Each structure stands twice: as structure tokens, then as C-alpha cells.
């Protein structure tokens, strides 16, 4: 019996020990708490797309726009105000967002005026090679535009029946030149007027044979700029056959706005660079200022002559001139890069980084002054020390639009009150009132050609895009700003068309489709601003692709609510989404 009691007590103690280990294990309690904590974290973890940060889903998967795998979204460590936009670190990196700290002065830029223009042929070197007698072109020895021609080079061979009689007269009078020297001299002079050389005349006289085919030689050296006749054509006396231009010197032509004219004068030194050779600087002087102002664009033209050694400069190249010692900003103004400023037609907007340690941004309205080089002076809206976004502003603005925050599209009166968090969330973009229908019709013609340019880029057709850009150039020149009676409206269009003109000219001067697509970004921005400000009595759609413009994002307009991407064409035709309907 004692043994049985001992066995029972031992079993009881072992059971109590096992129960303690099972139900009071601190390791299991900690694991349970950790599991609950992890479960809570999983419930709050959001997933986003690195290319489309507006996509937020509670669980992993694929982006509904581009199909990429979703990644964990960065959880914000602090709340942001209703006027702020927070971006993920991934989106910041992909958009290549860059900022600068606003300083009081940039002395190296403060007195420089920047002008945009083109390289053109020097009209002073133009020459026309004409036929000096009538006849049929049997052989044209110059085959294409751009061919180099040297003085004395054979250009064409012409069948000239009109010279037959003149040659017969020469042969006849040569036999009586001792008794009739004046008649003989007159016949020779007539042949000289037809540009026959002394050696040619002497050869006819010595041989006594009449020639029916005569050569035409170049009287100057140059480059063929235009062929005006072809083999088999019948040309009359004095009719042009070729146009030549000497590209040893070229003109650089620049547009100057009305408020800049007083800063420029003939003989003033300027420095010219081109996109093709950005490191090569041509120092020259202003040779001519057009005395007539273009009333549509409110611009005039200045001209400088450049030495073109090595024929590096090609007519049609985009050029930039820097004129020192003019313009500049007031000493009290701040200066920021021109790339930081967004234009809505009535206001100038920038994005500032409100927290130096967090990717949080806020829109700020500024008042800009004159442009000095690639900088704008800022008279109101910024303070020294503000951190301003200089690259990727449109990507931030697109994210703001998607999240319903203040943006250039849904913003009416951004002011200094924004710094204190005061803003009407219902504000919308205000269009200029009482725009004449005639001006809207001209703008609509411009927009229709823009759509054709966009379609050409969608189809990967660079030559067609170049042609459409030339149509846009013509349309832009036909817009009559005098139809706008309000000065603010005129100033708005003046600013829009300036960037529009430069970008369209750049597309029209190249058949490299990637260059065309880069300039199409500015064309799309300008036409969007124009339609927002003035209207065209038509509904259009604004599409956006975050992968365009080297992952900085870019927008475009379309007539249909569908995505056909002009920045990638067939390679990524459907990348992007419709962001806005512009009524």
C-alpha cells in the first residue's frame, strides 16, 4: 500500500510539472503576442506600384494599369496637411525629383538675357545660276540639293538652236575681219553676252564648225540649295537653273520680345551655342535688328553672322544666344531655375518641399519677374531657404491631381494663405472669360494639327511628325492675338506661344523620333495650357504616362477616352491612363 501511495503522488507531481510547462511557457506567450502584432501589421500594410504610386491596395498583387508586381508602400511616419502631397521613396527615385535651396542671388546669371532661335542660310551669299540662252537641257551635271559646286565647274549641257545663227555669223565675219573689223567685233561681243568664253569663241572660229550643244559653267562656288530645272526641260533666256548658297558663313536668327528690344543694339556682343554642339561657343555681334514688329507674336528678329568653318552649322539647327550685360533681376529678387515654374495661363506655380527629411511637397503660387538666362526672378511667394523642386514637378502635380489635392488643374487662387493651411478645396481652374469665338476657332485649328502630330508619333512615323510640326508652325503664325481685348489674356497667350513655338520648331527641324518625342512634352504642355485658358468648345482628355520622359512622367491630349502613347509608340502603346476630362 505504501508503494501505491508513492506511485500516485509521483504521477501527480509529474502531471503538475507538465501542466506548468504547457500552460505557463513564457516563450509561447511571447510568440503569441508577436503573432498578434504581426497580424495587426499585415492588416495595415498597403501595397503600391513603383510606376503608378496612386495605386494603393491592402494586399500584394499586380498593378491594374501596367501589370507590374506591387511592392510594400512606405508607411508615413507623420500626418500631412490637406494641402500637402506625400510621395513614396520609390516614386521619388523613379521620377528623379530634384530640389534646390532658394538663395538671395545668382550673380553669374543676373545680367544675362537668353534668346532662342535658328541657324539660317546667309542670304547675302545666295546666287542663281541661269541659262543665258534658250534651249533644251540635254544633261544636268548637278544631281541633288546639298551638292558642293566650285567656280568654273560644268553645271549643264544645253541644246541651243538660237546659237546656230550666231556661230554662222562669227565664221562668216571672221573671213572679212580685216575689211569689216567693227562687224566682226560686234558678233564676238554678242556671243560674250551669252556667256561664251574667249576660248570657246576662238575654238568655233578656228574649227569653222557649228556647235549645237553648249556647256554652262558655275560662276560662283557654293552649295546647291534648290534645283529649278531638270534634264529635258526647255529653258528660256535668263531662266534660273540652280540656286547656290555659300555656307562658309551662316545667320543666327533669334526672336526678341517687345519688352526686351530696348536692351539690345547693333554691334552688341553675343555668344551663340547649338544643341548639336553645346560645348562650342560662337562669339559674334548683333548685325541687324528687324525694324518691324510681328503684331501676332509681339516679337521682332535679331540677326548675327557666324563663321562656319568645317561646315558644322546646318541651316535649321536650334540655337541659343546669351547676351550679357542686359536684363537681370532686381537686387531684392530671388532667382530660381526656369524648370521649377509651372504655368496655368494666369498664374506661376512651384512645388516646395515642406519637410527636409520627408518626401512631402506643397504647391505655392509665385510672382515671377524677368527671365535671366535659365533663371526666373521671383518677386513674391518664396523666401530664402525654401527648398524648390526643379525636376519632376509635373510628376508631383500628377500625383496631387490623382489624390484630389491642390494642383495646377484644380486650383484657382493659390496664395500666401496656403502657407497657413487656408484653401478652398472646391476651387477649380478659372478659364479666361469672354474669349472671342474667332480666337477659339484659330486655337482649335492648332489643336487639330497637334492631334495629327500626336498620331504620327503613336505610329512611329518621324517624317510625318516633322510635316505635322511644320503645319503647327504655320497655324501658330496665323493666330491673331489682337482678337483678345483683355491685356491679361494677351499676356497669357504671349507666354504660352513662346514655349510652344520653340518646341514645335525643334520637332520640325529633325526626323529623329526620340528628339521629336522629347520636344513633344513641351508642345503638349503648351497646348494644354492654351485650351485650359481659352477653350476650344470641345471636350478633350488628358492622358499621363509615368514612364515617359526618362521615368519623370509626361502628359498628352487626346480626342478619345483611350490611351495610345505617343512617347513610346508600338513598344508600349497602352502605357498610361486618362487623368482628366477638359470640358
Please give a handful of descriptors for the protein shown.
6-stranded antiparallel beta sheet; 583 residues; alpha+beta; single chain; 12 helices; 6-stranded antiparallel barrel; 28 strands
What are the SSEs and their pairings?
Elements: H1 2-23, H2 26-44, E1 47-48, E2 56-57, E3 71-72, E4 84-86, H3 89-95, E5 98-101, E6 112-121, E7 127-130, E8 135-140, E9 148-149, E10 154-159, H4 162-174, H5 181-193, H6 198-207, E11 213-217, E12 222-227, E13 234-235, E14 240-245, E15 249-257, E16 269-274, E17 282-289, E18 299-307, E19 318-324, E20 334-337, E21 342-343, E22 348-353, E23 360-372, E24 375-380, E25 387-391, H7 393-402, H8 437-458, H9 462-478, H10 487-508, H11 513-534, E26 540-545, H12 548-551, E27 554-558, E28 577-582
Antiparallel strand pairs: 1-2, 1-3, 4-23, 5-25, 6-15, 6-19, 7-14, 8-10, 8-13, 9-12, 10-11, 12-14, 15-18, 16-17, 16-19, 17-18, 20-24, 21-22, 22-23, 23-24, 26-27, 26-28
Helix pairs in contact: 4-5, 8-9, 8-11, 9-10, 10-11
Beta-sheet strand percentage? 25-35%
Task: Please describe the biggest sheet, giving its number of strands, its sense, and whether it closes into a barrel.
Answer: 6 strands, antiparallel
Number of helices: 12
* Approximate helicity band: 25-40%
Task: Please report the total strand number as a whole number.
Answer: 28
Radius of gyration: 37 Å
Distance between the termini: 101 Å
Residue runs with pLDDT of under 50 for 5 or more positions: 25-42, 75-79, 105-110, 412-430
What's the overall geometry?
A: elongated
Which structural class should the secondary elements be placed in? Answer: alpha+beta
Amino acid at each position: 500500500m505504501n508503494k501505491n501511495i508513492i506511485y500516485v503522488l509521483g504521477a501527480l507531481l509529474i502531471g503538475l510539472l507538465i501542466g506548468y510547462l504547457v500552460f505557463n511557457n513564457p516563450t509561447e506567450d511571447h510568440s503569441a503576442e508577436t503573432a498578434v502584432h504581426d497580424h495587426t501589421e499585415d492588416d495595415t500594410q498597403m501595397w503600391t506600384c513603383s510606376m503608378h504610386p496612386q495605386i494603393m491596395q491592402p494586399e500584394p498583387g499586380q498593378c491594374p494599369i501596367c501589370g507590374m508586381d506591387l511592392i510594400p508602400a512606405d508607411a508615413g511616419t507623420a500626418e500631412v496637411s490637406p494641402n500637402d502631397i506625400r510621395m513614396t521613396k520609390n516614386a521619388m527615385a523613379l521620377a528623379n525629383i530634384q530640389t534646390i535651396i532658394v538663395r538671395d542671388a545668382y550673380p553669374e546669371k543676373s545680367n544675362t538675357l537668353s534668346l532662342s532661335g535658328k541657324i539660317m542660310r546667309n542670304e547675302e551669299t545666295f546666287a542663281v545660276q541661269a541659262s543665258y540662252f534658250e534651249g533644251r537641257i540635254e544633261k544636268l551635271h548637278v544631281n541633288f540639293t546639298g551638292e558642293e559646286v566650285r567656280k568654273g565647274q560644268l553645271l549643264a549641257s544645253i541644246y541651243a538652236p538660237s546659237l546656230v545663227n550666231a556661230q554662222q555669223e562669227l565664221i562668216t565675219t571672221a573671213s572679212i575681219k580685216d575689211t569689216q573689223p567693227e562687224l566682226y567685233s560686234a558678233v564676238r561681243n554678242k556671243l560674250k553676252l551669252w556667256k561664251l568664253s574667249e576660248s570657246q569663241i576662238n575654238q568655233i572660229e578656228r574649227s569653222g564648225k557649228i556647235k549645237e550643244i553648249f556647256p554652262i559653267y558655275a560662276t560662283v562656288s557654293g552649295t546647291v540649295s534648290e534645283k529649278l530645272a531638270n534634264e529635258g526641260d526647255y529653258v528660256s533666256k535668263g531662266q534660273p537653273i540652280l540656286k547656290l548658297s555659300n555656307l562658309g558663313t551662316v545667320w543666327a536668327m533669334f526672336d526678341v520680345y517687345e519688352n526686351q528690344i530696348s536692351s539690345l543694339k547693333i554691334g552688341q556682343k553675343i555668344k551663340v551655342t547649338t544643341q548639336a554642339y553645346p560645348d562650342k561657343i560662337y562669339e559674334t555681334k548683333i548685325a541687324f535688328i528687324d525694324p518691324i514688329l510681328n503684331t501676332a507674336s509681339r516679337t521682332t528678329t535679331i540677326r548675327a553672322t557666324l563663321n562656319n568653318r568645317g561646315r558644322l552649322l546646318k541651316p535649321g539647327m536650334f540655337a541659343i544666344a546669351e547676351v550679357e550685360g542686359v536684363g537681370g533681376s532686381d537686387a531684392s529678387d530671388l532667382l530660381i531655375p526656369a524648370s521649377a515654374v509651372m504655368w496655368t495661363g494666369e498664374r506661376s506655380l512651384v512645388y516646395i518641399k515642406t519637410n527636409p527629411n520627408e518626401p512631402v511637397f506643397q504647391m505655392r503660387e509665385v510672382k515671377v519677374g524677368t527671365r535671366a538666362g535659365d533663371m526666373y526672378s521671383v518677386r513674391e511667394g518664396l523666401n530664402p531657404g525654401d527648398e524648390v523642386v526643379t525636376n519632376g514637378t509635373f510628376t508631383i502635380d500628377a500625383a496631387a491631381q490623382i489624390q484630389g489635392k491642390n494642383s495646377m488643374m484644380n486650383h484657382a487662387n493659390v496664395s500666401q494663405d496656403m502657407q497657413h493651411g487656408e484653401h478652398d478645396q472646391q476651387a477649380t481652374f478659372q478659364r479666361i472669360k469672354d474669349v472671342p469665338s474667332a480666337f477659339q476657332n484659330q486655337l482649335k485649328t492648332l489643336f487639330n494639327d497637334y492631334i495629327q502630330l500626336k498620331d504620327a508619333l503613336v505610329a512611329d512615323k518621324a517624317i510625318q511628325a516633322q510635316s505635322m510640326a511644320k503645319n503647327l508652325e504655320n497655324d501658330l503664325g496665323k493666330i491673331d492675338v489682337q482678337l483678345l481685348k483683355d491685356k491679361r489674356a494677351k499676356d497669357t497667350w504671349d507666354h504660352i506661344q513662346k514655349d510652344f513655338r520653340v518646341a514645335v520648331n525643334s520637332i520640325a527641324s529633325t526626323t529623329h523620333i526620340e528628339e521629336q518625342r522629347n520636344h513633344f512634352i513641351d508642345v503638349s504642355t503648351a497646348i494644354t495650357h492654351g485650351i485650359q485658358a481659352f477653350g476650344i468648345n470641345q471636350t478633350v482628355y488628358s492622358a499621363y504616362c509615368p514612364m515617359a520622359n526618362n521615368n519623370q512622367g509626361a502628359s498628352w491630349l487626346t480626342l478619345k477616352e483611350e490611351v495610345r502613347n505617343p512617347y513610346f509608340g508600338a513598344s508600349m502603346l497602352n502605357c498610361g491612363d486618362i487623368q482628366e476630362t477638359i470640358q
